[in-house]
Design a protein that fits this description.
The protein is an alpha/beta fold. It is built from 27 helices and 20 strands. The chain folds into 3 domains: 300 residues, Rossmann fold; 184 residues, Rossmann fold (3-Layer(aba) Sandwich), CATH 3.40.50; 129 residues, Rossmann fold, CATH 3.40.50. The strands form 5 sheets. A 6-stranded parallel sheet has the order 10-9-11-12-14-13, sandwiched between helices. α18 links the parallel β11 and β12. The longest helix has 23 residues. The chain is elongated and about 95 Å long.
């Protein structure tokens, strides 16, 4: 059968499709359907609209692209290869989903340059996009001048039905509409298919009306398979709408071009199969062997290299002009982009002595946050409708609202999961250090986002208050018991439970300086004394000797957070009875484990086997430090509704009980 002559654009689109088809087939694993259906919109976006430099993927003023349906990642890998990114070669395409490949099964920013955020769990990517757009708006409001727009880029997202079904995207997109983020443009791959079958089985709402009610601008492209001009015009229109985020419903066919599997759920998550691959080649007139791209197609795509170099050179010239006209702002702008902290910023951290009044670490956190915010303008965040309880409001810093993007206080509303994903987007953008806050118990709602900040090595400061049964009358629904232990199991997440003012300052120092991942602060509602022996420097070690007796200890008491003072008080009583007692503060197990073996041995010598830990949470994880024969004063059940002091007393978190447990251990 004679094959009709195809235009260069058609060949470019089919090159995306067949790189995806061939890579999935070779791996015998993957999702070919999305790349096959979304190839036209992706081509139009990358070829006609997006500004990026393949030879400098980190150029600041590039447009950001997110493939929220990360399962279709071969779409993005194909684009990275075709447009000339060094991070993805044709050999990398052939190694799709293989061990140590730069083309893993879902996009990972730390594995592949050109990937902005780590997407996989549906709904996260589009929500990250909200954060990226917020960061752009905030920095633009801070630094752009009437004659020079230094920060001027778009965030483009390709999202799927699954992304729009997930609740996290509803939370984030609702906020995006409220904020009027005009430089956020989402192309919705509206193919009516999910993994289990037709979306008519579960997803029949009017997406257009939903997004219009959020305050978005909505368009529809009826034929996303072939109407290239229609896609182009829709993106052009979206860019002209500056006061609303835009979503473009692009009706596509999943697995487009496959004679027998197009518009079926079997094209979603499985290779087409050898016979169907060949049938698709014949159907689309693709007369090339696997992984072979025609020279004219590659030449067309590689024009992006020069375009990108020209765009970056033009922006660099703009930056030079900006430096001449606005030298102070330019210096600060370049510092923010570099991630370098101001010299001696840590001098803003408050310090405390035992003479300072007892206070809740949530209050101390608010004081520290405000103290350092004056020297760290990059701090940018807020709370999930609990700022008054979390103490996260930056005084005098203004509110981040539509048309008032210079403000640094973000009002996330009751949207914990959306807040988490947005903060990850803020962190991936650069130029800001994001923080998000809620009650510790509600990390359950946002665990997926916290895990992704750790996985993607993204700096976010998670500020969690009301960290134990001591929060009191709200009862077990609000009293976190298992949460700290559970969060400690997430790789690359540093969890900190500061015990007093100095440790709270130390926790912030650790969080601000930790660029390679997130830090979570678990803070008390109840007042705690400032302890002799605590310090910012010691806190950074994760665990340290708070107080000691001469000679080898008879027993080591290990405390953390709101329970450390119980250990200190019990130790004083034991010493009065002639016992040698060491008190160890353990604000962060992760930071302690990062110390060398000699230091850890100096704090917790193996020769001292009588050990007792105190934490108002589950005992899980503490036997690493107290041993199987040690004692963990803990709570391995849900809490109870009562005043916080009563709850602590009834569950044994008193000096008297710690003393009794220690005496029993000493025999």
């Amino acid at each position: 059968m004679a094959v009709a002559t195809q235009s260069l654009e058609e060949l470019c689109i089919n090159s995306i499709r067949f790189l995806a088809i061939d890579a999935v087939q070779k791996a015998n694993s993957g999702h070919p359907g999305l790349p096959m259906g979304a190839a036209p919109m992706a081509f139009v976006l990358w070829d006609r609209f997006m500004r990026y430099n393949p030879k400098n993927p980190q150029w600041f003023n590039r447009d950001r692209f997110i493939l929220s349906g990360g399962h279709g990642c071969m779409l993005q890998y194909a684009l990275l290869y075709l447009t000339g990114y060094d991070s993805v070669s044709i050999e990398d395409i052939k190694q799709f989903r293989q061990w140590e490949s730069r083309t893993p099964g879902h996009p990972e920013n730390f594995e592949t340059e050109g990937i902005e955020v780590t997407t996989g769990p549906l709904g996260q990517g589009i929500s990250n996009g909200v954060g990226l757009a917020m960061a752009e708006a905030h920095l633009a409001a801070q630094f752009n001048k009437s004659d020079l727009s230094l920060v001027d880029h778009y965030t483009y997202v390709i999202a799927t039905d699954g992304d729009l079904m997930e609740g996290v995207s509803a939370e984030a997109c609702s906020l995006a509409g409220h904020l009027g983020l005009g430089k956020l443009i989402v192309l919705y791959d509206d193919n009516l298919i999910s993994l289990d079958g037709d979306t008519s089985l579960s997803f029949t709402e009017d997406v257009t009306q939903r997004y219009e009610s959020y305050g978005w601008h909505v368009q529809m492209v009826e034929d996303g398979n072939t109407d290239i001009d229609g896609i182009h015009k829709a993106i052009e229109t979206a860019k002209s709408v500056t006061d609303k985020p835009s979503i473009i419903r692009v009706r596509t066919t999943i697995g487009y071009g496959s004679p027998n599997k197009a518009h079926t759920h079997t094209a979603h998550g499985s290779p087409l199969g050898g016979d169907e691959v060949q049938a698709t080649r014949e159907h689309l007139g693709w007369q090339h062997e696997p992984f072979v791209i025609p020279d004219d197609v590659l030449s067309h795509y590689r024009k992006s290299i020069q375009r990108g170099a020209d765009a970056e050179a033009e922006w660099n010239q703009l930056l030079q002009e900006y430096e001449t006209k606005y030298p102070n702002e330019a210096t600060e702008f370049k510092r923010l982009l570099s991630g370098k902290l101001p010299d001696q910023w840590e001098k803003a951290l408050p310090t405390f002595t035992p003479d300072d009044k007892a206070d809740a670490t949530r209050n101390l956190s608010g004081n520290v946050l405000n103290a350092i915010s004056g020297v760290l303008p990059e701090l940018f965040g807020g709370s999930a409708d609990l700022a008054s309880s979390n103490k996260t409001l930056l005084k005098g810093a203004g509110n981040f609202q539509k048309g008032e993007y210079t403000g640094r206080n973000i009002w996330f509303g009751v949207r914990e999961h959306g807040m988490g994903a947005i903060c990850n987007g803020l962190g991936r953008h650069g130029g800001v250090i994001p923080y998000g806050a809620t009650f510790l118990v509600f990390t359950d709602y946002m665990r997926g986002a916290i895990r992704l900040s750790a996985l993607s090595r993204t700096q976010v400061i998670w500020i969690m208050t009301h960290d134990s049964i001591a929060l009191g009358e709200d009862g077990p629904t609000h009293q976190p018991v298992e949460h700290v232990a559970s969060l400690r199991t997430i790789p690359n997440l540093v969890v900190m439970r500061p015990a007093d003012g100095n440790e709270t300052s130390g926790a912030y120092k650790a969080a601000v300086e930790r660029r390679e991942g997130p830090t979570l602060l678990a803070l008390s509602r109840q007042n705690l004394p400032n302890l002799a022996g605590s310090s910012i420097e010691n806190t950074l070690k994760g665990g340290y000797i708070l107080s000691d007796s001469d000679g080898t200890p008879d027993i080591i008491l290990i405390g953390t957070g709101g329970e450390l003072h119980l250990c200190a008080e019990a130790a004083d009583k034991l010493r009065g009875e002639g016992k040698k007692v060491r008190v160890v503060s353990m604000p962060s197990m992760e930071l302690f484990e990062a110390q060398d073996e000699a230091y850890r041995e100096s704090v917790l010598p193996k020769s001292v086997v009588k050990r007792l830990s105190v934490e108002a949470g589950t005992s899980f994880g503490w036997h690493r430090y107290v041993g199987l024969d040690g004692v963990a004063v803990s709570i391995d059940r849900f809490g109870a509704s009562a005043p916080g002091t009563i709850a602590l007393e009834k569950f044994g978190f008193t000096t008297e009980n710690v003393l009794a447990k220690a005496k029993a251990l000493l025999g």
